[in-house]
Amino acid sequence: MEALANDRVGVRSTIPPRSDSFPFRIALALFVASGAAGLVDQVCFSKYLTYIVGATAQAVSAVLAAFMTGLALGAHLGGRFAHRVQRPLIVYGLLELVAAAALLLAPLEFELLSDAYAALARSLPDSLALLSLVRWLVALVIVALPTTAMGATLPILTRALADSNASAKERRLGALYAANTVGGAIGALSAAYWVLPTLGLRPTLITAACVTAAVGLTAIAVGRNVASVAAAPAAEPREATSDGVAVRGVALDVLALSSGFLVFAAEVLFTHLLALLIGNSAYAFGLILAVFLGCLFFGAARVAWFRRRFGRAALSLGLGATGLALALTLPLWDELPLLFGAMARA
Hints:
single chain; mainly alpha; Growth Hormone, Chain: A; 11 helices; globular
């Protein structure tokens, strides 16, 4: 990681001076703040949706599904159009401002959709699958715009690393992801145990929107003093690949889809189990999110070393270790009530 080093001496033009290097440490700090605000939003959205649908597990599932849908769409669009971006920090700042504006409108949207959801739910046949789909759509209507903007931020910032060599780019990309993740862990934990109880639901969401807007404005201000990145040519159509390469690509896509499905299914189940013990959905959701994101931060921070150490076997070893850890820790959930009881008596 390199600090922003700008030499202002001898500049006679009225045009703002440009730096020759990307302010990576500033980008990391912005990504930490952005991640924290984003997970405060997620905890707030889960609480809002609990008021509407009235069931913790369903609310958590709907919010997670809607959030990940928006993030996936944003990542796809960001990756598709990132090669056209010449001022990544400025575009990143604009995306954060779009997310902030959408968050400010969210409380009003939840109020308007509450009555509409109740009327629609009463008119539906007795189908859990159909009702779950409606819940997801309700959440998606509200979170689609801010989460799509959030999802596009990492591909856009990655565009600023175009001039780095392959090793440095991989290291910096991992650092950006880790920074956003640790910020999310801080945001999830502070939202559940400090900000929400102190400020209340709507002020917390407005505060998170203001933080997001501050990140966006800072990114734009810094981006004006950073040299632009030359536009990259659009990717040319790929030539036909061998059957083996095509099959391997499809297998990796299926593997990524399956692992994401299992991870977030586990997150919903763990949140529900913890809510049975501590009796508050916001506390349970925030704590589980913080633990998940904290562990993801540790993994993201070590991914470059892990890949160098194990090479092509790194992916299979990582997935195998994940499955083994999940199997070994599942029985411990039965012991948590005893542990909590012992802590209460101590």
